[in-house]
Write a structure and sequence with these properties.
Strand order of the largest sheet: 1-8-2-3-7-4-6-5-9-10-11
Order of helices and strands: EHEEHEHHEEHEHEEEHEEHEEHEH
Helix content: 25-40%
CATH topology of the largest domain: DHBP synthase
Bound molecules: adenosine monophosphate, magnesium ion
Largest sheet: 11 strands, mixed
Distance between the termini: 30 Å
Number of domains: 2
CATH class of the largest domain: Alpha Beta
Number of helices: 10
Oligomer: single chain
Amino acid sequence: MASILPYTHDNITLAAAALERGEVVAFATETVYGLGALTFREQAIERIYELKGRPLNNPLISHVLDIQHARSVAVIEGWRPAELAMAFWPGPLTMILPKRPEVPLAATGGLETIAVRAPKHSLARALLHAAGTPISAPSANRSGRVSATLASHVVEDFGDADLMVLDGGACRFGIESTVLDLSGDRAVVLRLGAVGADAIAAVLGTSVEVTPGAGQSASPGSSEKHYAPRTPSMLIRRSDVERETAAGSVVVIAAGGLPSLAGADVEVIALPEDPDACAAALYEALRAADRAMKPRILIVEPEGEGVIWDAVRDRLRRAAMAS
Ligand code: AMP
Ligand code: MG
């Protein structure tokens, strides 16, 4: 059975010992909860894929303390990674760099590149300190499903597994990190997150391409249906709510909520109107919509502008993609 452990020094020590024995441990970060194993433990990494039902070619992010620590898994050349780490680490920016030969291919989905990120959450950092070596961790959800932003979400998905879940509370950002491919000459954002392309471009002094969904092999998680509730979900415009809800029992997720819809069999889940708060509440809202057990979920597409709204819309579009 999965067990939620409060964030204490003793439990960090316990979890680090489990990682050292080759076990998988779930833990909080400031983006989403991660399902972690030591990057250099091939069998433990394979267990992550097995638990998640994750396609073997979908690579993992290796979590490190800082740029020096990143050197144990990635080849860091030139000034770009160091400058970006100075600007955005610890924080929600993942960089894709050539991998060091010692890193097992199991940890990179068979690729010669590796994704690295230094998380900011003190729990994740304490665990990295105690483990003393990088921790590979994808989001702690079943493959393709909604990411976990509370310890209880991890138990929702992995309750049957013998798994420690280190509880660091609700994730502050609530959406996954920005993924930036720096493995070639160009800088390409493969996944939108809280660190925007403009902010990256300002540090690099060059243009940054943004191609979420580019090529399955480049970044599988960025192109598929993803972040999806189990219930069939559809993205709609606010102006279509009345028409779409007339057809029968439904859950509607909407930033700022909705005026009551007379007579309709509708359960409304309101998301905050502030972009940061909306992102933080997003996955709990998608999970709550599933728990409502209605036949359909309607998601009102938010219209705000800016980096966070772009990332939120990206997740909602993938959540509502046909499978
Ligand atoms: P997750 O940890 O579940 O949020 O997923 C990690 C994301 O980073 C996925 O979209 C992966 O495809 C992407 N990723 C990780 N490593 C690489 C890599 N070496 N090259 C391209 N994308 C990567
Ligand atoms: Mg994921």
